[in-house]
What we know:
Number of domains: 2
Strand order of the largest sheet: 2-8-7-4-5
CATH topology of the largest domain: Immunoglobulin-like
CATH class of the largest domain: Mainly Beta
Number of helices: 1
Order of helices and strands: HEEEEEEEEEEEEEEEE
Shape: elongated
Radius of gyration: 28 Å
Amino acid sequence: MKLRTAILASLAATALAAPAAAPAATLGVDKPCYGAGERVQFSGGGFTPSGSVALSVSGQQLGVGNANPVGEFAASLGAPAIDGKQRTDIFTATDQTNLALTASVPVLLTSLNVSVKPKNGNPGKLKRIVARGFTTGKVLYAHVRRAGTKRNIKIGRLKGPCKTLSVRRRLFSLDAKTGTYKVQFDTRRRYSADTAPQVGFVVTVYPVVGPASASSAGESWIRVG
Length: 225
């Protein structure tokens, strides 16, 4: 009994004397999804106070910054353009004083795109509009511009982390005048040529001649941005 008591006392003393485990490093970002060129804001903690921290992606170092006196780290990078709809890159922050001290975060990246179908036929018909990558807003609008014509059309609410949408909307009236229009998609209720991000189209509405067509006009869409 005395031996057991002595062992327990010794273990307790050892536990009290053991230093507290150092907190693990952390790394996070400020948004769930980023479009090309959008600033990705990184923030983390648990690094060597006032030490250097390197940020890398897929093993490629992007740069080195300094933690503050309490071991917090912050960095800002422009999101890259990607092929395809979306992808996830893993970013890692590595303490340069203690290379074993690292933290990683997945960053979801998206492309910016709007498709409108069909791109021909009667301009007054409903269109299937599919959009993604408008990560700076909540609602998608279409701005139709031509001399004498100014329309701002609410397309719909964007959903999911990368702000996607698929709806059917009518962008032109059944008696749309022939001519060339600019159609700009963005997340601002009012039109501005400087709004970003945006996707633009030039739409030509032209007269249809011949008995085979029941409509008096056709259209063609060309993306310009």
